[in-house]
Amino acid sequence: MTTMTLADGPGPTEPLPVLTGLSDLDDLTGPLPRGKLTVLAGRPSAGTSALALTIALNANATGRTAAFVNLQAGAEALKIAMLSATAGINADRPESLNPGRIDRMHRAGEFLKGRPLLSWTPEGTPVLRGIRNTLANHTVDVLLVDDVGLLSPHSRYDATAVKELAGLAAADNVALVLTAHLRPTRDGYHLPPTTDDLYDPELAAAADALVLLHRPNFEGGAPKRGSEVDLIAVKGWPRTGTATVRFEPEYHRMVDLPNA
After folding, report:
1. Could you tell me where the DSSP H helices lie in 173-250?
2. Taking the CA of residue 103 as centre, how many other CA atoms within 13 Å lie in the half-sphere pointing to its CB?
3. What is the pTM of this model?
4. 100/87 Cα distance (integer angstroms)
5. What is the pLDDT of residues 200-224, one digit of tens each?
6. Which residues, in sequence order, are CB contacts of 222 under 8 Å at separation 6+?
7. How many whole angstroms separate alpha carbon 62 and alpha carbon 82?
8. Which CATH architecture fits 19-72+124-256?
């Protein structure tokens, strides 16, 4: 007979791990590091926003509390993205919704109501003040900010703001995730990015963990790769390497590739 004790699982005060919900990535990197800064960086249209939303929704669906700060879209656009990602339906095209899809959208909405995501957009409260208030009034497991370039009203990298967020995350043991853009390359998008492609080298230095996104077929040069995105763990993980997922831009999400 096996006797189960508290040592066999998380202790009463040990926080739950925060996973992305993407099996191959989680198998490669393990959980998002709590109290640390993780940066997700990709070239335009690589899917950084979709990856951040995927992480946020998975966290909430698995009993963690996520705060998702979308600085690129308004509240209505974020609501549509959340519904699309949850239902697997393109809510941006309401003219294509038949009764079955409408029912799925309704059920997705009810599901999200039962697991409210702490989310907000640029309207209203200044960004950093809103984040401070959120962390002061809620127990948060993962804070995601999309994207770091918009933390500053001047749309450039704000080292002071990033340092403050990192301090808040460390104090509250929150997994902090920021998305960032990589420079387009003259040689084409078919080449995998490197940390040198970040617009702001300071961000690479500040990041405790870093994932680069690469969409090899973005320019149509790798048709066999279809809608695949390579998630390249390059810094701060127990293991480095690449996990490949499918990007579904019409649903604002990323999902596992079928297992072979």
Report:
1. 201-206
2. 3
3. 0.89
4. 11
5. 889 999 999 999 999 999 888 888 9
6. 190, 216
7. 16
8. 3-Layer(aba) Sandwich (3.40)
